[in-house]
Design a protein that fits this description.
Shape: globular
Largest sheet: none
Mean pLDDT: 82
Low-confidence stretches: 411-419
Number of strands: 0
Number of domains: 1
CATH architecture: Up-down Bundle
CATH class: Mainly Alpha
Radius of gyration: 21 Å
Order of helices and strands: HHHHHHHHHHHHHHHHHHHH
Strand content: under 5%
CATH superfamily: MFS general substrate transporter like domains
Structural class: mainly alpha
């Protein structure tokens, strides 16, 4: 199969970082017990991750053609493996923050490289859209695996045994490094474009920001990730503090969210081939709103025991709320693929850098806001505030669609004139 080994490699890389980065929600819950920190203090773990992602993506997005996709991913995997083997033995809150920062920087390198690599190894727009959805589905499976991994080591979070999870992640990073090292990748397309100065490459990246299509996309990506990360990072705490589910069971129950997101992206991969993407995504937002409102209403009006340690005692709302992932999941890979497909391959790395930068900013802002609201107004009311970014996202999707149609019309008119 064409480029099969490098495709397997990028799937493994995404799987690894899915476990590592999206364990933040679980770790936010665990550090509150182990280090006795408050919700707003625990919420600071997400900025350490996301700001590092943004910085790495901005740097790599501008200079990736000089470094190379494969070399960037190898650097990322090596740094993560080293951090996962060393930092757990320290067991300080600052060490967890440092691990989040290293993981974020490494993921910034990886995500830009993966998006660029997909552009190299695919031959058509349909193949690009298909692989983008498939790799994001695989990302969800990695998140799901991470919940079970951390739950295995977290029955008694006050002992700190959950730190041992990072040794498993570090071992997987070593395996992913070996697979990537042995995978051939022809990067001549991007190497030929690396003739300008570093300042010019950075300027070319910044020029993309002023394009109307990119501006509208950036807004979509920002508000989508704000919603997704605030939900994913604080659902374990919601299960524990609102529904009174024990730590290990709360973490396992949170795995329903990435499972539903994987299902949502799988179904979207089928539906997007048959129906207009705008219809699908607006339907997804309507479904997400319905799930959010109904589940929070149920949580407010459901009597739960003081402590839930048995699966049979878990309330219905714990099943319903995570189902929001089915409707949220298709949005992000779809808009990523659409904006990348509208740009030449030589611009994919720079655009990927912007995607990750603004996604990271949206994610960290969502986590901080939700952590603050969790303490001030309680878990149920904190999640009600997600209705605002959902509404804004609907508006920005309309903007994105309108600009994309206008751009397509301009290109068609230009081709007719040339003919």
């Amino acid at each position: 199969m064409h480029n099969s080994r490098i495709k397997v490699s990028i799937f493994l890389n995404y799987f690894l970082f899915a476990i590592l980065l999206n364990s933040i929600g679980t770790v936010i819950l665990l550090v509150q017990t182990y280090f006795k920190v408050s919700e707003p203090e625990a919420a600071l773990l997400d900025p350490f991750k996301d700001i590092s992602i943004a910085v790495a993506s901005f740097i790599v997005g501008a200079f990736i053609s000089r470094i190379g996709y494969k070399k960037s991913m190898l650097i990322a995997l090596a740094s993560v493996a080293l951090a996962c083997f060393i930092i757990p033995s320290l067991r300080f809150f600052w060490a967890v923050k440092l691990l989040c920062a290293i993981s974020g920087f490494a993921f910034g390198l990886t995500k830009v490289s993966v998006f660029g690599t997909i552009g190299i190894v695919t031959r058509s727009e349909k193949e690009h859209l298909s692989i983008m959805n498939f790799i994001e589905s695989f990302f969800m499976i990695g998140i799901l695996s991470g919940y079970f991994l951390f739950a295995h080591f977290a029955p008694n979070p006050e002992t700190g045994n959950w730190f041992h999870s990072y040794y498993v992640v570090g071992a997987f990073a070593v395996v992913a490094f070996i697979v990537l090292l042995s995978s051939p990748l022809d990067e001549s397309v991007i190497m030929r474009s690396a003739n300008g100065s570093s300042a010019r490459e950075l300027a070319d990246m910044l020029k993309l920001i002023v394009l109307p299509l990119v501006i509208s996309f950036v807004l979509c990506a920002f508000f989508y990730v704000l919603i997704e990360q605030s939900t994913m990072n604080w659902l374990p705490t919601f299960n524990k503090k609102v529904l009174h589910i024990s730590e290990s069971l709360a973490i396992i129950w949170t795995s329903i969210l990435p499972s539903s997101m994987a299902l949502g992206r799988f179904l979207a991969g089928i539906l997007l081939r048959k129906f207009n993407w705008m219809v699908i995504l607006m339907g997804c937002l309507a479904g997400a709103t319905l799930i959010l409102v109904s589940s929070l209403y149920m949580a407010k009006n459901t009597a739960v025991p003081a402590s839930i340690d048995s699966v049979s005692d878990v309330p219905l709302v714990a099943f319903v709320f995570p189902a929001i992932g089915i409707f949220l999941a298709p949005i992000y890979p779809a808009i990523n693929s659409l904006v990348l497909g509208a740009l030449p391959k030589s611009k994919h790395a720079a655009m990927s850098g912007l995607i990750v930068v603004f996604s990271a900013l949206g994610g960290t802002l969502g986590s901080i806001i939700t952590g603050f609201l969790f303490k001030k107004v309680g878990g149920i009311n904190a999640f009600y505030f997600s209705l605002a970014p959902i509404g804004i996202l609907a508006i920005t999707l309309f903007m994105f669609n309108k600009i994309k149609i206008r751009q397509a019309g301009s290109l068609l008119l230009a081709e007719e004139r040339l003919a």
